[in-house]
Amino acid sequence: MAEEERSHWSHVLKRRIAVLEKDARNEEEKKAEETELFTKYYTEWRSGVETDESYKTIPRFYYKLPAEDEVLLQKLREESRAVFLQRKSRELLDNEELQNLWFLLDKHQVPPVSGDEAMINYEAFLQVGEKAGPKCRNFFTARVYSKLLHNDPYGRISIMQFFNYVMRKVWLHQTRIGLSLYDVAGQGYLRESDLENYILELIPTLPQLDGLEKSFYSFYVCTAVRKFFFFLDPLRTGKIKIQDILACSFLDDLLELRDEELSKESQESNWFSAPSALRVYGQYLNLDKDHNGMLSKEELSRYGTATLTSVFLDRVFQECLTYDGEMDYKTYLDFVLALENRKEPAALQYIFKLLDMENLGYLNVFSLNFFFRAIQEQMKLHGQEPVFFQDVKDEIFDMVKPKDPYKITLQDLVNSCQGDTVVSILIDLNGFWTYENREMLVANDDSSNTVDLDET
After folding, report:
1. From 13-17, 200-204, 218-222, the region with the lowest mean pLDDT
2. Architecture of domain 186-274 in CATH?
3. How far is 107 from 367, CA to CA, in rounded Å?
4. Considering the entire predicted model, what is its pTM?
5. Which CATH code of 1.10.150, 2.30.30, 1.10.238, 1.10.10 fits the domain covering 74-178?
6. pLDDT at 123 over 80
7. Which of 195, 208, 214, 117 is nearest to 157 (CA)?
8. May I ask the CATH class of domain 303-442?
C-alpha cells in the first residue's frame, strides 16, 4: 500500500514539474515576442517610416468659408446653396399632391366612423402609402402610425390627424427652406439683418398687415425682430439658429396674420399684429415728450402705471445700451418685452441682471433690501404705511425656496414659478400693492362673479 502511494505522488510531482517548465517556456516566448515587436516599432518610429496610412481614408468634414476678397468662391457657394435648396423644395409635396393624398386617404377609410372622424387601419394605411408616390414614403411608416395611434378599439388612426401631421411637416420644411434662403453665411442661423429682410419681404403676404403705412414698415420690422432675438438669443450673440426659430411658436403667431378673419382678441394678444405693433410704438411716442426720438430716465418713468421705482430705472440706464444717457426704440422694445412677460425665463434673466447690482450671480438680503427701500419710499409718498422689509424678505424666501437659504439665483426664481411675483414686489409699487392685496382682489372677483350668476 505504501509503495502504491509513493508511486502516485511521484507521478503527480513529475506532471506538475512538466507543467511548470511548459509555463516557463511560454513566458519566455511571450517576452521574446514582445521584445521583437517593440524593437520593430521603435526602429520604424526612429527612422520616420509611417506604415499606418488609415488617416488618408478619413473623409474631409471641414471646408473653410471663402474670405471676403474671394468673390468667385463666394458666388459659387451661394449658387450651390440655391441649387440645393431648390432641389429640397422640389422634394416636398405641392398642393395638387396633397389633394391627391387626401382623396386616397378618404377612399381607403375603414368603418365604423369614430364620432365625426374618418378612420384608417394599418393595412389600408400601407396601401395608401404605395399609391401616394415616392414623396410620401417617409410619412407611411410604422413609427408615424404608432405616434398617431390612441384609444381606438380597432387599432385605427384618424385620417384628419394624419393629414394634419403631413401638412405640418410639409409646412416646417417649406419654412425652413424659406428661412435658409436668407441665411447669408450658410451656417444654419440668421443674423438680425437676415431676419429683418425675411420679415420685410413677408409683410405683403400677410393680409392682416395690409393697413400698415409703408413709412411704418421699418418700425414694424424692428418690433417683430426684437421678440425673436430677445427670447431666442439670451446671450446676445446677434444670431439665432433656424432650428430654434422653427421650434418656437413665434413664427406661428406671425404667419397667423395670413388669416383674413382673425378675431380682434387674437390680434390684440398677438405681438406681431398691426394693433399690437402700433400700440407699442404709440406708447413710445407718448413717452417721448421732447420729441427727440429717444427716452430719458424721466420720460421712461411714466411707463405703464408710472409706479416703477427710480432705483430700478437707474439700473436700467446703467446696464442697457443708451446714447448720451437716453434709450432708443430697440432698447425700449427689450424693456417692454421683459416687463410684459415676467413669467418667462428670458424676461427674468433681463430683470435679474438689473437686480444683481454687484454681479454676484445671486440676490442676497442686501440687494433685496436695497430695492425694497424704494418701494417703502413710494408708499410714504402716497400716504401709505410702509411694510417692514423683514416681513417681505421672509415671504420672498418662502416663495422661492432657494437651494442656499441666504442666496436667490436666477435658476431659483425660474424653478419656483414665482419669479414674476418676486420681481414685481421689488421694482413696481403697483406690483407690490397687487401682491399685498391679493386676497381682497380674489374676494372681489368671486363676489362679482356671484352677482353675474345671480343676475342670469
Report:
1. 13-17
2. Orthogonal Bundle (1.10)
3. 68
4. 0.78
5. 1.10.238
6. yes
7. 117
8. mainly alpha
